[in-house]
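Q: Here's a chain of 84 amino acids. Please give me its 3D structure as tokens.
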Amino acid sequence: MANIKSQKKRIRTNAKAAERNKAVKSELKTRMKSARTSIGSEKNAEEVRLAVKRIDMAAAKGIIHKNAAARRKSRLMKKVNAAG
């Protein structure tokens, strides 16, 4: 444990941020999985829209890099368009 007051506060704030980031990343993975599994069904458009929205929100918050967000969206759309 740190002895310096500011470092103790830093540890607490980092833990809070990590908890928030974990929740956002978990939601992102869930949306991506549901979008991929719904390919070919009638609810696919809605699932893809929600997945893209979550990707954009994570990138805006700085949880994932903007290029990583673009790559994920590109790969998802490539799979959707290939399915027809």
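Q: Can you summarize the key feature?
A: The chain is about 80% helix and 0% strand.
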